[in-house]
Write a structure and sequence with these properties.
The chain has a single domain, classed as Cytochrome P450 (Cytochrome p450), CATH 1.10.630.10. The protein has 16 helices and 8 strands. A 4-stranded mixed beta sheet has the order 1-2-6-3. The protein has a two-stranded antiparallel ribbon with strand order 4-5. Strands 7-8 form a two-stranded antiparallel ribbon. The mean pLDDT is 92.
Length: 447
């Protein structure tokens, strides 16, 4: 046991926690074939969520789904969605101007709309659209049931056999709920795309593109390929509705705690746009401070502070430490290591800036998206979506505390589940001035 590697046992399970980026890269990157498996999580088996790529075991099914996501979400491919991302960010501005008290619902809604449009070409039908609510329910459930120590059945698998008439000990009703949600997320959107293709009304989307590619295959091959496509895209759909929203919420808390940073970011934005237009992706290279704020949010309050645990496929030895097969390996504290990030609990965007104000490259920050072969395939999409939403918000709104909040006594806390986000808090979106309102209205009229 050292400061960089901690090892302990729980219910006979060996768990190794890595606390340095060097060790994480040595194991997850350089020895990826050994450290890229996932542990068996009994509640997920009970829910029949084996199609979820993030939780899939290291094997052919995972490789097929991962290959598809890597291809469609690589940096070059993600640029195709910039106009859509930009448009959704501006729709958010319109809705915030019209009903600012519903800010949280607007943010969640717009992210859901973006993911559904990109993935399935689906146009959301109002705030209560089932395709958004079911994905959000599944994301919340998966974050909860996979969090270490949350469910005893994950540590004592025999509990899965306890009959349902023993409600205090049975997990069958929870498993049934998860299965129903999973089946809806997996099948309903794909059915929509296939029906739209048959009618000739399908909009461009990842699902349409991948389904068209399977048409040249034999029937058996096509069925297998469609299963892989459905699982990969449903994984993106379920995960994408929650992660970016959580990052945006973390940004809001950071600004409420440090309003001076908002002023600095707005000054930079105004210098670039001249307050004649709203920001675009083409402005990003000229907005290093805004970019640094986004990066610091992801470091300060990472969306997945623990990440999903890896599992070893065989025995290994690292610097004299024996790590047996089926060991759970996870990372913790790397983004809050004081040797890498002095005053790690402080929110300091300047840590990502050079002395001349330009953006500093920081490879350690990639840890916010995971490690090795299991790094989040959607990281480039999250990065661009997060940036354009934040830049757009700052360009026209002042983000302030709730009207009745006492500045001296407001405290903000974050959930401890798999996906971390702030606990409920109040926030006000106030147009910076009349010019800000004019920019929002002009953009709304032009759409």
């Amino acid at each position: 046991m050292t400061g960089d590697i901690l090892s302990f046992h729980i219910f006979g399970q060996v768990i190794v926690v890595l606390n340095s980026i060097k060790v994480s890269k040595d194991l997850f990157d350089k020895r990826g074939d050994i450290y890229s498996d996932r542990p068996v999580i009994p509640i997920l088996d009970m829910m029949k969520w084996g199609w979820l790529v993030p939780f899939a075991r290291y094997g052919n099914f995972w490789r097929q789904g991962r290959r598809l996501l890597d291809r469609d979400l690589r940096p070059g491919a993600v640029t195709a969605y910039r106009l859509m991302q930009q448009m959704k960010a501006r729709v958010l501005l319109t809705r915030l101007l019209a009903s600012p008290d519903e800010w949280e619902a607007h943010i969640e809604q717009l992210q859901g709309e973006l993911i559904l449009a990109m993935t399935y070409g689906y146009e959301v039908q109002g705030h209560n659209d089932r395709k958004i609510t079911v994905a959000r329910q599944m994301a919340t459930l998966s974050s909860t049931v996979t969090f270490p120590g949350c469910l005893l059945v994950n540590d004592l698998p025999f509990l899965r056999y306890i009959p349902e008439w023993l409600p205090w000990f049975s997990y069958k009703s929870l498993a049934r709920l998860g299965h129903e949600l999973g089946e809806e997320v997996l099948h309903k959107p794909m059915e929509f795309v296939k029906e739209s293709m048959a009618k000739g009304t399908a909009r461009p989307s990842l699902a349409l593109k991948n389904l068209q590619e399977t048409e040249k295959l034999s029937r058996t091959e096509r069925e297998k390929a469609e299963e892989a496509v459905a699982g990969a895209l449903a994984s993106m759909y379920a995960a994408g509705t929650d992660t970016t929203v959580s990052a945006i919420m973390g940004f809001l808390v950071a600004i409420l705690l440090h309003p001076d940073l908002q002023t600095t970011a707005q000054r930079e934005l105004d210098a670039v746009t001249g307050r004649e237009r709203l920001p675009t992706f083409e402005d990003r290279s000229k907005l290093p401070f805004v970019d640094a704020v986004c990066k610091e949010v992801l470091r300060w309050r990472p969306v997945g502070p623990l990440g999903l645990p890896h599992s070893t496929t065989e025995d290994d030895v690292y610097e004299g430490f024996f790590i047996p097969k089926a060991t759970l390996t996870a990372c913790r504290g790397i983004l809050h290591n004081p040797e890498v990030y002095p005053e790690p609990d402080a929110f300091k965007p300047e840590r990502f800036l050079e002395a001349d104000g330009s953006l500093r490259d920081d490879p350690t920050l990639a840890a916010t998206y995971g490690y090795g072969k299991r790094i989040c395939p959607g990281r480039h999409l999250v990065d661009t979506t997060f940036f354009i939403f934040i830049a757009s918000l700052l360009s026209v709104f002042n983000i302030e505390r709730g009207k009745d909040d006492d500045v001296r006594h407001v405290e903000y806390s974050f959930t401890g589940a798999g996906i971390s986000r702030p606990n409920p808090f109040r926030c006000s979106f106030i147009p910076r001035d009349q010019r800000a309102e004019e920019l929002i209205i002009a953009d709304t009229m032009a759409r």
